[in-house]
Amino acid sequence: QSALTQPPSASGSPGQSITISCTGTSSDVGTYNFVSWYQQHPGKAPKLMIYEVSKRPSGVPDRFSGSKSVNTASLTVSGLQAEDEADYYCTAHAGTNNWMVFGGGTKLTVL
Amino acid sequence: QVQLQESGPGLVKPSDTLSLTCTVSGGSISGYFWSWIRQPPGKGLEWIAYSYDTGGTNYNPSLRSRVTMSIDTSNNQFSLRLRSLTAADTAVYFCARIISGVVAFDIWGQGTLVTVSS
């Protein structure tokens, strides 16, 4: 069982927007702004899409955005494209003794 | 640009010790934090450990009793040792670089599949 809770699946049509949630606790998401999101295509390594809740690494389209409210973080993908179809994982810092915890992942399908 | 490459045995026996190495090319291993993450087939990701070039380490509490991570700055490599293997340790093992001051990985290796089976 993962420390962070994500919906197992999400879907949307091209051009639409979709939001994926990531629910933690007051010990991780609720306390630290070290929430990150990764995109993983089948057979590939994960790719960092968002870090520190809402920051985008260089090269990541601004269609991807992140936010946080209390114990829940969210990833929004706007203007869905076929290449956005992938698994998405959230992570959070949970203190020195448990440096990083992952969500169980969400499979995003572009219809 | 910096690239990471994992290497190690693809098949190990139960109760044995797994040894993996990550080679860093295109840049120095010094001055950064480095980490190991794994992913069982068809399942989610799990952080295993991180270390930095002066030797400090931090381990996932669930694996702390079985894992050791080390850094070899002279060869620009870092390593993972996981003891007392069981079938539950079967996974793709990734190495990754940690963004300075941030709890996130900006560069990943391609991953290596390790199967624990007799």
Task: Explain briefly what this protein structure is.
By secondary structure, chain A is mostly beta strands. Chain A has strands at residues 9-12, 18-23, 35-40, 47-50, 64-69, 72-77, 86-92, 101-102, 106-110.
- β-strand percent of chain B reads over 45%
Major sheet of chain B: size, sense and barrel closure?
A: 7 strands, mixed
Structure classification of chain B: mainly beta
Number of DSSP E strands of chain A: 9
Distance between the termini of chain B: 39 Å
Distance between the termini of chain A: 29 Å
The largest inter-chain interface, given as chain pair and residues per side, is: A-B, 27 and 19 residues
Determine the number of helices of chain B (DSSP H or I, runs of at least 4 residues).
Answer: 0
Radius of gyration of chain A, taken over Cα atoms and rounded to an integer in Å: 13 Å
Helix amount of chain A: under 10%
Average pLDDT for all residues of chain B: 96
**Element order of chain A: H for helix, E for strand:** EEEEEEEEE
Number of helices of chain A: 0
Description:
In chain A, strands 1, 3, 4, 7, 8 and 9 form a six-stranded mixed beta sheet that branches. Chain A is built from no helices and nine strands. Chain A has strands spanning 9-12, 18-23, 35-40, 47-50, 64-69, 72-77, 86-92, 101-102, 106-110. Chain A has 111 residues and is an all-beta fold. The mean pLDDT of chain A is 96. Chain B is mostly beta strands. Chain B contains no helices and eleven strands. The model of chain B has no long low-confidence stretch (mean pLDDT 96). Chains A and B meet through strand 7 and strand 8 of A and strand 5 and strand 10 of B.
Strand and helix layout:
The complex is a heterodimer of chains A (111) and B (118).
Chain A: E1 9-12, E2 18-23, E3 35-40, E4 47-50, E5 64-69, E6 72-77, E7 86-92, E8 101-102, E9 106-110
Parallel strand pairs in A: 1-9
Antiparallel strand pairs in A: 2-6, 3-4, 3-7, 5-6, 7-8, 7-9
Chain B: E1 3-7, E2 11-12, E3 18-25, E4 33-39, E5 46-52, E6 57-59, E7 67-72, E8 77-82, E9 91-98, E10 105-108, E11 112-116
Parallel strand pairs in B: 2-11
Antiparallel strand pairs in B: 1-3, 3-8, 4-5, 4-9, 5-6, 7-8, 9-10, 9-11
